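queue> pop job 88
queue> type: inverse folding (structure -> sequence)
queue> payload:
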């Protein structure tokens, strides 16, 4: 079971918050919601927040990608944010994270000249 909440557009951004398990029952719903709740030309950025999503399958990944391309066709940018745990890993393994504008994962890598987590400087 999943839930979709849409915040009122603020400035030129509309936030769509998804929660629960995104599976084949989710198909068609995101695009329908985005088309209706995030009107062009008022909204330029559509942010899909996945913070409360616990599971995602291939049909839901396709739904996110389809919504991304539909938004682009209307001159909007759809970005996915706050994917956590297995949801984040599945989107990255599927190879769609960059297309959906997800920030790169934090690797914790320390580069030369940066402070080391233990307080030492790596050189």
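queue> result:
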């Amino acid at each position: 079971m999943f839930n979709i909440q849409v915040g009122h557009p603020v400035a030129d951004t509309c936030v769509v918050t998804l929660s629960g398990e995104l599976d084949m029952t989710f198909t068609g719903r995101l695009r329908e919601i985005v088309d209706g709740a995030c009107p062009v030309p008022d909204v330029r950025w559509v942010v899909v927040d996945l913070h409360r999503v616990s599971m995602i399958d291939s049909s839901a990944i396709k739904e996110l990608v389809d919504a991304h391309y539909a938004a682009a066709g209307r001159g909007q940018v759809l970005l996915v944010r706050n994917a956590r745990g297995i949801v984040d890993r599945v989107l990255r393994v599927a190879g769609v994270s960059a297309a959906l504008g997800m920030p790169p994962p934090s690797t914790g890598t320390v580069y030369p000249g940066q402070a080391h987590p233990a307080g030492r400087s790596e050189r």
